[in-house]
Amino acid sequence: MKIAISSNGKTLDDLVSDVFGRCSYFIIVKIDNKKIEFIEAFENISKNQSGSTGVTVAQTVIDKEINAIISENIGPRALDVFKQFKIKTFKGKGTVKKVLEEFIQNKLEKI
């Protein structure tokens, strides 16, 4: 399973962003059998876009072939896109590392 986590920075020690579409970075994590297989960070180059940011960013993340999103907040248009592609969405707060551990333990609330 591949997960995208909206983040304020590039590391697991950075905080999960409180907004999906305007986050600074995404941390992509591949998990297999409850173990982290790979981690990649990429900058959200659409964060300063004037309109429809959530939809644009949702498509960017979908292109990374992810199965789930973790963010503190996801707007309704981005949520609609994720529902169309059957991508699960979860609410997470704190460091990326903390929410990743909570995800692995099935302790995150679905959005």
What does this protein look like?
There is one protein chain. The protein is of the alpha/beta class. It has one domain (2-110): Nucleotidyltransferase, domain 5. The protein has three helices and six strands, in the order E-E-E-H-E-H-E-H-E. Helix 2 links the parallel strand 4 and strand 5 (88-91).
What's the short version?
With 111 residues, the chain is of the alpha/beta class. It has three helices and six strands, in the order E-E-E-H-E-H-E-H-E. The chain has a single domain (2-110), classed as 2-Layer Sandwich (Nucleotidyltransferase, domain 5), CATH 3.30.420.
Quaternary structure classification: single chain
Order of helices and strands: EEEHEHEHE
Structural class: alpha/beta
Taking strands numbered 1, 2, ... along the chain, how are they ordered across the largest sheet?
3-2-1-4-5-6
Rg value: 12 Å
Please identify which CATH superfamily we are dealing with: Dinitrogenase iron-molybdenum cofactor biosynthesis domain
CATH topology: Nucleotidyltransferase, domain 5
Shape: globular
Please work out how many helical segments DSSP would assign.
3
Main pleated sheet = 6 strands, mixed
Output the CATH class name: Alpha Beta
What is the average of the pLDDT values? Answer: 93
